[in-house]
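Weekly structure sync, notes
Attendees: PL (lead), two postdocs, one rotation student
Agenda item 3: pending single-chain targets
PL asked that the sequence for the first pending target be pasted directly into the notes so everyone works from the same version. It is reproduced below exactly as submitted, 560 residues in total.
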Amino acid sequence: MSRYEILSPVDIERHVANGEPVVIYEGYVLHLGEWINMHPGGKLAILHMVGRDATDEINIYHTNKAILMMTKHRIGRVELPWANLNPPIRSPDYYINLEKRKAKREALGLGHIDSEKRMRGRSVDLGSAAVLVGKKLIRNDNCVRRSTGIPADIPEKSPMLAVETSTFDAAKEKKARRHQYAIEQEQREREEGWRDNPSVDVETQMAIITEYRALNEQFKSEGLYNCNYTAYAWESLRYLALFAAFGYCLHIKWYITSAMFLGLFWQQIMFTAHDAGHRGITGNFVYDTLIGAFIADFCCGLSIGWWKSSHNVHHLVTNMPEHDPDIQNIPMFSITPTYMKSVLSSFYNFRFVWDGACDLLVPYQKWWYYPIMALARFNLYFLGWLHLCSPRAQQLGAAWWTRPVEITFMCCYWYIFGYLLVWCTLPTWSDRVAFVLTSHFVTIILHIQITLSHWGMPTASLGPTESFPQHQLRTTMDVDCPHWLDWFHGGLQFQAVHHLFPRVPRHNLRRGQELVRNFAQKTGVKYTCLTFVDCNKAVLARLEQVSDIVKNMDASLLVN
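Predicted structure, written out during the meeting:
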């Protein structure tokens, strides 16, 4: 008989209300207050599982060794099936309430000793992980006033409000109508999801989970979690050939051709960085992190730490507008009308406000999808350094050493690429500009590959009872391509399979796709797999659909 007592839903709710990160795993209650600051995957990955049955997420993302370590964090058991709670981090008022609690503690003179007490009491500051350099914290009254459209720097009794009452009322009405229109569009997509997929009742979803766990065992029995190192040997030869072509063309002063080969080298080698980021090469966190950092930071100038911090969350809350940082791109892009409600990002602790820039840019977003993808690498440089300079990069506990390693590698990249190559080797400014732009434009292929599998898929939630496997298949699509073209896509063509089994090395994903197809047919969960051209069409259609919603909404407001 188990020595752990049964905890009721009320007990779990009490733990969550006290700010304690409790997670359900195989019927056990894990209290991760002593571990959350040490979690190599970051705090947010845990925060999004608070109060939820995270059995599948934990099994899929962790090795047996890591799972064994979690047993020491057990504090009780619950009766299954467990009815998931809504994690506090997903509440629109979470950061407001957090700031109020902090202010109250400081007023009581507990601020300077609070963190130590919370560690001993195994509760944590569930919001500190979301503070990012460059993002202004939304605090108390200012946040409430901004959410109603009142600028934070205007006093509550400002004479300007009396003078401009009619203008303010019109803007407030416009905002309210946008909010309602977005809700209606979300509901329409939600109804389509309910219609096209199995019911989200507990019994149906548990049957899907049972099949998914059996599928995971089949992946293991077929050795799909084992890395094919021979395939990586061939991969390495291709990388070396591209790099040699870049070097040779640079030597004979074919600068534009050389830049094209360098861009292709970057595009291809980042596939291996993606594998390493998911521990799909050696399975060892340290080794795979070093491999990923060498490729991404040293060879490409991109922060693998930034990528992992956002990508870990993206895999757990895929295509959720308020939580998935990979789709939070307004005012340049919006793949969902949800952003018309001006949502608060739980990742950035920053409110994405739908303003005049969105009204101006979103209606034409499909026209600059490809131009922006061609320039995306420059943005990734910026985001990488922003991450390394932020508190988030310093909150990795056992993985603290990754930050100085990344900074060192990225400095080496800029010394070699920026100084030795661009500045010292290329003779003129025109050659330098052309080389940099060409090499970066070529990586458009990678950026399109990254966005294809999600930007054309649904974003509306079907409710807290929807299982992990159904949500992943419903919000992710695969690219259908012949076997001989796998090298071009580098495993990113199997994103739906990858989201179900992220630690499976990419050379095994084609076999995994066959098994996932059978799983989808057996369970009735919708599985989307389109050709590369049709995937592009789906993304453009989604962008145009949201653009039309904005145009129609604007026209409706003008008429009224």
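Discussion points:
- The chain has a mean pLDDT of 86.
- The chain is about 60% helix and 5% strand.
Action: rotation student to compare against the earlier draft before next sync.
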